[in-house]
Amino acid sequence: MRERTIASHFARAALGGARRRGYDYSSLLQQLGISPELLEEPRARIAPEQFARLIQGLWLALDDEYLGFGQAPSKPGSFAMMCHAVIHCRTLEKALNRGLLFYSLFPGAPRLTLSREGDRVRLGLDDSPLWDPDHFLSESLLVIWHRFGSWLIGQRIRLEQATFSYPRPGHGAEYDLLFSCPLEFSCAQSSLLFHSRYLNMPLLQDERTLKHFLERSPADLLSRPDEGDSLSSQLRRLLSRDSARWPDLEAVAAHLHISPQTLRRHLREEGTSFQELKDQLRRDIAIYHLGRADLSLQQIAEQLGFSEPSAFHRAFKKWTGLTPGAYRAQEL
């Protein structure tokens, strides 16, 4: 229930390569319980597991792990073979270099590089040759390599910066889900910057854990939010622990040992607000229950702290563009 939902933009963007290839994905959407109307609503959200299954379904249908966005297709199983090639490396640096070398052997594969900048390391992506109008493959490659590297060493690699070769897109507000760090757009290249100390860390995974990891990855890596260390991420975790009581801003500030004014200022610097974070969590909990028919609309409204079902009705439509009843009808 605490998993954050995925904006409909990412599902529409993922389908772009299939549209370009002339693939009719209507039966795949039907099979996953995703209505085309839901996808066309800009504010709509889908469950993380639905998104992961959509990605997996498209890989198989298109026979391409790049989903039609690369210069050349990447046969399903390529990512798994790369993982097997790196799993016995001693350090993260050796694993990343071997993984990037693996992909460089394929003509037309997106080019990724690892370069040192003092005590920092930059994972750079040359996305200029890609057919990627919504930047879906660019975002996916950076997310996958960051989360795969973090999984290999058993801890999240703290990102210092993420840069993008294109202007801030319309879905830029969603980037906190993908990269919990300072963002810069219209840069020379798309890249992730992190401290070089991670490169010397030993791999904590093996063949046994890799087998389990590959059951759902890399689709699973794309469907999970980045549980970063930003104040917004901390607050989401704090609020989701006890969503039944919905603490107010003053109580949360006291818990964090800072003043309410300081909390507001820090959240403003991160481009959000306490109310916005609370509404996002309420929205995601509502979507979770609406997709499962375990609670009535009134029970969901009560759990989210609304005194009247009509207030929940109005709020949900404002968040997603659909009423709770219409959303449930499309999901079930």
Structural description of this entry:
The protein has 332 residues and is of the alpha+beta class. It contains 18 helices and 7 strands. The strands form 2 sheets. Strands 3-4-7-5-6 form a 5-stranded mixed β-sheet, with helices on one face. Strands 1-2 form a two-stranded antiparallel ribbon. The mean pLDDT is 89. It comes from Pseudomonas lini.
Short key terms for the protein model shown above:
Arc Repressor Mutant, subunit A; alpha+beta; two-stranded antiparallel ribbon; five-stranded mixed beta sheet; 3 domains; globular; 332 residues; 18 helices
Tell me the Rg in angstroms: 21 Å
Poorly predicted regions: none
Overall morphology: globular
- What is the tally of helical segments? 18
How much of the sequence lies in strands comes to 5-15%
What number of structural domains do the residues give?
3
Distance between the ends: 17 Å
* Overall helicity: 40-55%
What is the element string, with H for helices and E for strands? Answer: EHHHHEHHHEEHEHEEHHHHHHHHH
Number of strands: 7
Average pLDDT taken over every residue: 89
Q: Going across the major beta sheet, what is the strand order?
A: 3-4-7-5-6
Q: Describe the biggest sheet?
A: 5 strands, mixed
Structural class estimated from helices and strands: alpha+beta
Keywords: DNA-binding, Transcription, Transcription regulation
Domain HTH araC/xylS-type: 233-330
Protein name: AraC family transcriptional regulator
Pfam family, one: HTH_18
